[in-house]
Amino acid sequence: MSFYTAENYSPDISVGYLAKQVYQITLKGLEPAFVGEDVSYLQWSALVSILYGRGLTCRALAHDLGHDKGATTRLIDTLEERGLVIRDRDAEDRRVINLRVTVQGEEIARRCMLRVLTLWNGWLADWSPDDATRLIGYLQRLRTSLETAVGDEPCA
Fold first, then answer.
1. What's the sign of the alpha-carbon dihedral 120, 122, 123, 129?
2. Is 29 within 8 Å of 119 (Cβ atoms)?
3. Which residues form the HTH marR-type domain (predicted)?
4. Which pLDDT score is estimated for 145?
5. For the domain that residue 72 is a member of, what is the CATH number?
6. 53-82: per-residue pLDDT in tens?
7. pLDDT tens track for 1-43
8. CA 5 to chain centre
9. DSSP percent split of the chain into helix, strand, coil, nearest 5
10. What's the burial of 80, exposed, middle or buried (CB within 10 Å: 0-12/13-18/19+)?
11. Inter-residue contact 46 to 61 (CB < 8 Å)
12. Domains contained in the chain, number
């Protein structure tokens, strides 16, 4: 049995629509976390992706951020010019360019992360820890279902 039907559908119960709205509202709400740091949400996301080993090459970073490789290359160029990221040739395969965050980049990423965590903790203040954990589990499950259905495997 299908969950959605033409009769019961509306944007207010659309997973895709709600996910997009949550994302857009989150971006606006996170703006204070980056004030005075001279990084944008996207730049911070790239630093965190690299720090946590999810975007260690341009290709992997583009996948993790959901951007095309050209836009990601320009993003890395900006972060490199500002001394926040370094490109290094891979020792085993010289064709591969690895990314790593500099000390300055890590300091900025971690400062902003603490601000982001404070904002999220405020937004989830009236949620029980169990509810927040369940939400995270559901989102992870949905991500896995979508990756399987779309054939979008995470980059290693």
1. positive
2. yes
3. 15-144
4. 94
5. 1.10.10.10
6. 999 999 999 999 999 999 999 999 999 999
7. 899 999 999 999 999 999 999 999 999 999 999 999 989 999 9
8. 32
9. 65, 5, 30
10. middle
11. yes
12. 1
Residue 156 has what pLDDT? 45
Residue pair 75/31 in contact (Cβ under 8 Å)? The answer is no
Report which residue type is found at 17: Y
In a domain, 86, yes or no: yes
Sign of CA dihedral 153, 29, 116, 88: positive
Range of the domain at 82: 33-115
In a domain, 50, yes or no: yes
The answer to whether position 110 is within a domain reads yes
Q: What is the value of pTM for the model shown?
A: 0.89
Q: Return all residues near 136 (Cβ < 8 A) that are at least 6 apart.
A: none
Residue 73 inside a domain? The answer is yes
